[in-house]
Input
Amino acid sequence: MLKITNLSASIGDKQILNNVNIELAEGRCLLVTGQNGAGKSTLLHAIMGRPDIAITGNIDLDSVELHNMDCHERARSGVFLAHQAPPTIDGVNTMTLFKEVQKAQNLDITTGNLIKQVKDLSEQFGLPDDWSKRAFNSGASGGERKKGELMQAEVLSKKTKLLLLDEPDSGLEQSSRQKIVELIENTCNSGGSVMLVTHDKELQAKYNDNKLDLNNA
Amino acid sequence: MRKVYLDADSLDLMLVPVHSEYEFVFIQTEGKCTAKIHLKPQSNAKFKVKIYIYAEGNSEVDCVCTLDVPKDIDGVETDIQFRSWPFDKSKIKARPEMFIANSNIIATHGNALGAMNKEDTYYLASRGISDAKELIKQSLINA
Amino acid sequence: MNELEQEYTAGFTTNVESELTGRGLNENTVRLISAKNNEPEWLLEFRLDALNKLSTMTEPDWAELKYTRPDYDNIYYHSRPKKQFKSLDEVPQEILDDFEKLGIPLHERAKLAGVAVDAVFDSVSIGTTYKEKLAEEGIIFCSFNEAVQHHPELVKQYVGSVVPRGDNWFACINSAVFSDGSFVYIPEGKRCPLELSTYFRINSAGSGQFERTLIIADKDSYVSYLEGCTAPQRDENQLHAAVVELVALDRAEIKYSTVQNWYPGDEHGVGGVYNFVTKRAQCRGVKSRVSWTQVETGSAITWKYPSCVLQGEGSTGEFYSVAVTKGRQQADTGTKMIHIGANTRSKIISKGISLGNSTMTYRGLVRMTPGAKNARNYTQCDSLMIGNDSRSNTVPYTDCRNDTAQIEHEATTGRVSDEELYYLATRGLDAEQAASTIVNGFCRSVLNTLPLEFAAEANKLLSVTMEGSIG
Output
């Protein structure tokens, strides 16, 4: 259960979120909507704990007080964010990164299994063969970067309690949309919750029953 | 061809590139390293050189990579990339130099220095990794 | 004068000659210059101190340049007036031809050719109107010597504070024997309404040899300063060792543009000006900004690194350069960006073109000191080699001493691509036109930073310089 109470967020001296309240049960997906600039992405980053976002209010995930924790601690507590624009990280090979993440989060996947899963999923997502051998996101297109995020969500987040999807679909083709739906269902079926920011009409229609509209929050 | 130098004192290397890719990795945790890599390609050589420099603590690295193409060497294609991470109070001097006397050449180089920027650190934290520095170091040693 | 003539006839030939004309780098010469300029004691001390320092220094030889060292003992350091023609009729035809090609306006040609000003037209009145406009704003723009006389406290406060006397060999010589130059002071909050140009500086002593320029932009002020011109400049004085010091206080901005086309020497590399200039800016103030733009096509040897010391937090330094060498010219040029304050920024765009048997070297230093938290640098240096006999060197030096600064540098060296030339040929351009098009495209990002009138002239200068060098 995710409980957010009176969450206000600002970046610098710009106030972006004002007294947002959310209760999201296990197994449920919350669609977050609003115009550009309403603070949809900011909300996800505030929950994740991005350092430059100042917040007041409480964020509780299964009674764990996230708002008092650093970003990496929140990740280790079961929060997974699929970034909208993941960066290129020089000098860090993708496979190496996956191994490190797996270790940091105590995910208990053997290296052999990890390599196999990455290989299989790369094929399924249509990523180039050498993708995992390159420096992270080196030379990758926008679409490839997003696919990488979805892949990680699948491989690395078996223990995900809160899945945050920041426009996971933009720039991707139809088959990827199906993958997003699968990911959301898998997470919910395992007892996790999902918050989804998307402009995709079909995804919006599908998850319309549980909605937070930031324009009116 | 890949070579990793852990806490080296100095390096003075003259290289006639025969492979297409070279990687030199300098990991300096203490002391000072002075490295000179002198590239003397033959005609029509096509090669890339990547130089990674990681320094932490109070260590220092001064690395100069010189590309030397005299007039009689024709048709060279090369790209030389430096990437350096000066963590803590370390100092890094990165010097990609080119001396070219034959215009039938495509020579590019890039040089990026910087520890970790906020976006990268945040990304890694959102994956549960709190020690970006250690990640880079291990990644460079083991790649 | 008569007394001295008598002494001359009496046989003290050598001494009198050197005293009168300031030959040789020695105390007599320095005192002569200082007395001639009617300088206060503190400035004479400044010069003598520099002369003393010089004796402890050695002439540098680390650059990628080969040249015959100037014979310092036989240079006349006291400025001699440039050779003056009585009218345009006396000016050599080749100079007039260049004026035509470069599109220099008729009324400017006389002054640039060195025709005695009062023999021509109304240039005095032009200069006067200019000065009046500036005076209204409290802006000071005059010769360095005038500034010493009328604004000594300002000069004393700032001269030598950016380029100290012992900074380097040539700056040291300059500090001892400088003759004149420009002085600019922009008061707090003022935006200089005109592009300040050395062309309009009256009373220029005409030496050009050891010019000393000092520009101070007080808080929240702005000035754009143009130096030089596209017209080819002959000068019997071979060594040009100028010093330019810029000081920008809080939120001030100085834009300094140079177009240089000094005589490059003959086809054997004989003669030609040695352009050994020390140019440095201190961005002392918070959020201050200095921008250097240079188009260098002349001189036998160009050796200069217009630099910025970024002290004030949030200050910015920029360097834009197009340098062309051909024939037997040599250039070792670039910049130094020293980041001291936090959040400082620097940007370097350098375009070098080498033709003929010339040598072009880009040399740049970017240093991030421990205090320069979150500082950023971006450098792009590209070299184009035309023909197959030139040399192109790139010597970047990046020095990072803190863990939050970021430096990004990209460089390319190559020649004009055959594919591009072919494509333009299929569009009807001959080899020269095609190469010219490509060269202009290559330099676009730098030329765009010049003030408008200068940009048009610089474009023409590039075309004229490249003429006959392709194919």
